Amino acid sequence: MRTFTTRDGSIWMPSYLTFIDSKTCIGCGRCFKVCSRDVMHLHGVNDAGEILGPCDDEDDDFDGELNRMIMVVDDAGRCIGCGACGRVCPKNCQTHVAADELAT
């Protein structure tokens, strides 16, 4: 097991974002706003629950198929494990995995 420490020498274990539950996520964007690493982005979802793709601008309605928006982990490798996104999520729909549990 690898040991991580903070600046003052306290032991700390990063917990990396690995998944966001699309059924629970309400697409509020709070996690996106606190993430400094560009790990996740809003994606459109249709009535059937299928993810349509990233929502790049306000006018993106996917030819009228857009039902709602959710956050999707686009680049999990950019996550630094700070946990800020999980602390602001009102639906607790994110899965985080401790660094020592991830396969090396």
From TrEMBL:
Keyword Transcription: no
PROSITE patterns: 4FE4S_FER_1 (PS00198), 4FE4S_FER_2 (PS51379)
A GO term, aspect molecular function: metal ion binding
Taxonomic superkingdom: Bacteria
Keywords attached to this entry: 4Fe-4S, Electron transport, Iron, Iron-sulfur, Metal-binding, Nitrogen fixation, Repeat, Transport
KW Ligase (keyword) present: no
Residue ranges of domain 4Fe-4S ferredoxin-type in the record: 16-45, 69-99
Record InterPro entries: 4Fe4S_Fe-S-bd, 4Fe4S_Fe_S_CS, FdIII_4_nif, Fe-S_Ferredoxin
Cofactor(s) in the UniProt record: [4Fe-4S] cluster
Role description: Ferredoxins are iron-sulfur proteins that transfer electrons in a wide variety of metabolic reactions.
Entry-linked NCBIfam families: fdxN_nitrog
Protein name: Ferredoxin III
Organism: Mesorhizobium wenxiniae
Lineage: Bacteria, Pseudomonadati, Pseudomonadota, Alphaproteobacteria, Hyphomicrobiales
Gene: fdxB
